[in-house]
Design brief:
6 strands; Rossmann fold; six-stranded parallel β-sheet; Arc Repressor Mutant, subunit A
Length: about 220
């Protein structure tokens, strides 16, 4: 797995590189700003880019803008975004093009090495990984009129774990229910969110995006 890291904090940048190399992963380049990151992506064409949301010079949205641009140039590349805080609008912007091979984690998750590496491998393999804390904060907002208000508490639990990128078996294990029960909950979620079967969309990703877009619009 070839990886480019974009992080303006040199300690975190080098720490990430050391961690990944210790796992026999190929960190081909690191960058301290968005411009150097895009040059590195074009030069090395990595399998995965790990990108900080806030980068120089303004430390607002340079990282997320660069991540979106990198995905436009290289749509096959996976992107794992890191943020110190839950930034809902940025998550929506990044996931708006479909959600495959994308992750959004809080930086504190890096210290939980096994969880961080699991998320990295998940997005590299074509999946989605959204930090549980981000999902929890979004799902606990109780504004009237949202489609997610149709969901039962258990369905919300299932959707939250879907948003983290877990499959049915992993969800069942986390909630101590059967695979069949999870399957029924997911079918109900799709029905309540008006997501019909289609060959052109991943309904799991669409369910999460539908919530993020609605929460962002009302936020």
């Amino acid at each position: 797995m070839r990886i480019v890291i974009a992080e303006d904090d040199p300690l975190l940048r080098e720490g990430l590189a050391l961690l990944l190399r210790a796992e026999s992963l190929d960190v081909v380049a690191t960058a301290g700003n968005a411009g150097d990151f895009l040059v590195a992506v074009d030069t090395y064409r990595p399998d995965v880019a790990i990108v900080d949301v806030r980068m120089p010079p303004t430390h607002t949205d340079e990282g997320i803008v660069a991540a979106v641009e990198a995905r436009r140039r290289h749509p096959e590349m996976a992107v794992l975004v890191l943020s110190a805080y839950v930034e809902q609008a940025f998550a929506t912007d990044l996931l708006a093009d479909g959600g495959a091979r994308l992750g959004y984690l809080l930086k504190e998750r890096v210290g939980r090495v096994e969880e961080f590496l699991d998320a990295l491998h998940r997005v590299a393999g074509g999946g989605t990984a959204i930090d549980p804390e981000i999902v929890a904060q979004l799902l606990t907002r109780n504004r009237p009129g949202r489609r997610l208000d149709r969901l039962s508490p258990r369905e919300r639990d299932v959707l939250a774990l879907m948003a983290e990128g877990l499959g049915n078996t992993a969800i069942a294990e986390r909630l101590f229910v059967t695979d069949g029960a999870v399957h029924k909950h997911i079918r109900s979620i799709f029905a309540k969110l008006d997501l019909a079967p289609t060959d052109r969309a991943d309904r799991r990703v669409t369910a999460v995006l539908q919530y993020l877009e609605d929460a962002n619009r009302r936020g």
